[in-house]
Amino acid sequence: MRTAMRFDLRFDWRVMGTAAYVPLIVAVVMTLFEPLMRGSLRQLIPALEFIWPLFAAWWSIFLFQDVLEEPGGETIFSYPVSRFSLGIARAAVFFLGYAMLTAWVVGVIDFSLSLFVQLLAECYFYAGLGFFAMTLLRRTGWSLSVAFCYAGMQILTGGKLIPLLNVYLFNQELLPLDLVLQHSLPTLVMGTVLWGMGQWSFQKSGAYH
Amino acid sequence: MDNLIIDRLVKKYDKHTALNDVSLEITPGMYGLLGPNGAGKTTLMRVLTTLLPATEGEIRLGSVSWKQADDVRRITGYLPQKFALYKHIRVEEVLDHVAVLKGVGDRRREIETILEQVNLTEHRKKKMGQLSGGMVRRVGIAQALLGDPRLVVVDEPTAGLDPEERIRFRRLLRSLGRDKIVLISTHIVEDIEATCDRAAILHKGRLVEQGSIDRLGGLATGKVWVLTVPQQDFYEVAEAYDVIASHRLGDRYRLRILADTPPPGAVCAAPTLEDGYLYAMRRDAS
Q1: pLDDT at residue B173, rounded to an integer
Q2: What is the pLDDT of residue B144?
Q3: Would the CB atoms of B70 and A11 count as touching at under 8 Å?
Q4: Does B262 touch chain A if contact means CB atoms closer than 8 Å?
Q5: Strand B76-79 to strand B151-155: parallel, antiparallel, or no bridges (unpaired)?
Q6: What CATH number belongs to B4-213?
Q7: What are phi and psi of A171, to 5 degrees?
Q8: Which residue from B285, B286, B269, B281 is spatially nearest to B223, judged by alpha carbons?
Q9: Backbone dihedral angles phi then psi of residue B86, each to the nearest 5 degrees
Q10: Which of A131, B71, B159, B280 is the most buried (most CB within 10 A)?
Q11: Residue A109: is its pLDDT beyond 90?
């Protein structure tokens, strides 16, 4: 008999405590940028690109705080639930929630499919980065630092620090969809690698407290 | 009920052998695993709960083989040494979550029954972070019992508990062994003495002894001596003999000594499990 896929998403949300609400607050703040910047896309798009995708790592990190960081997390691995559903599947469900939030933010600011695709690809990358960092480092603080450091260094250097690993487009106006798709492809590939490495690390995780 | 068979179990971490050729047959009831820190107890617990794969050897419980980890997880419950999850969540919510993950059918009824069994019904609404150490351990046992496992594995059950909580927790553990195999791993001999019928002693990853509590205590028969000495002679005697316990009686000390030949003036004493354990450890080390 195969180990079951079981979810308890309401509980996962409750376990994150106040940290669960941070992306929601950031989403509301993002939508407030629109009237503050008087709808200027030249300012809005970079502001969105620099802040919003970064917070996609948030739920991927805090979702695993108890399982990986707290003493006794090993108990959860002794239950008849697959590590696939405890790991990548749970993180993916929360990423879907973040994708919906992205659609709402983009919809409020300036309904544009190309902007949505651009941000979604970057969010996908950051959610994967958060997941991988957390499964590897097993500390929320360190994992957040990885995400913030990556964002900070790429933004400050205009993506020139490690051009190969840059996910930002640094555009100040809406780009055509085909151009966004073309630029997003490497981001999606890197994101998929991070999601995969995150699950591999979670699957192999045996260093219990 | 079936016995748990552990056959020639080996667990290696790179070059370090944490478990070396361990074979045990564990009958239903309470079974203790004794050993000092680093003996391999926690490794054995983790292999039994499928958290770690064995390097060699076999484990079976009836028709369930440990080669099928998924099947094993359906029949085991585990309480690790440190259990401090979900601090801002209520006890009943934690248990409900565990019941969901374990695929328990009638969650509400089973949680009610288990809360009653571990005497936590009146604390069900409390958050985990508000509970005392003993209560957290009881929640730990409750989560292990959800799903009615055939094998319950408890690592260092009374570590960090105050004496009263320790007594209460031992009583609870004792009540579990009626229809299950309950395996308790500890370095506190009293825990085993108070709860188990049989035990095994591990040292440096090897099985040193196994058997009934009486038999293990009996290993030190004719080797335990009681000697009462004046206060000023204490250090001299302690240097000359293997003093395993001392009690102050006014200005004198009553010493419990482990020795093959009686120290002058000493009286032979009936051995306890602790004496047998210490004797086995000394014998194994020499």
Answers
A1: 87
A2: 94
A3: no
A4: no
A5: parallel
A6: 3.40.50.300
A7: -85, 155
A8: B269
A9: 55, 50
A10: A131
A11: no
Residue-level pLDDT at A207: 60
Amino acid letter, B6: I
- In this structure, the dihedral spanned by the alpha carbons of residues B140, B141, B143 and B149, taken in order and rounded to 10 degrees, is 150
CB contact under 8 A, B101 and A6: yes
Q: Which of residues 41-80 of A touch B (CB under 8 A)?
A: 66, 70-80
Pairwise CB contact (< 8 Å): B97 & A72: no
Residue type, A39: G
- Residue-range domain boundaries for chain B: 4-213, 224-270
pLDDT of residue B187 exceeding 90, the answer is no
**Which residues are CB-neighbours of B16 under 8 A, at least 6 positions away?**
none
Per-residue confidence band for B166, with pLDDT thresholds at 50, 70 and 90: confident
In this structure, the strands spanning B151-155 and B56-61 are unpaired
Give residues 35 to 64 of B whose Cβ lies within 8 Å of A. Answer: 46, 49-52
Q: Is the pLDDT of residue B111 over 90?
A: yes
Which structure tokens are listed for B176?
């579990």
Contact check, Cβ <8 Å, A209/B93: no
CB of A21 within 8 Å of any CB in chain B?
no
Helix (H, G, I), strand (E, B) or coil at B246: strand
Does an H or E element contain B206, and which?
A: strand B206-212
Confidence of residue A191 (pLDDT cuts 50, 70, 90): very high
Interchain pair B82, A71: CB under 8 A: yes
Dihedral pair phi/psi, residue B258, rounded to 5°: -105, 115
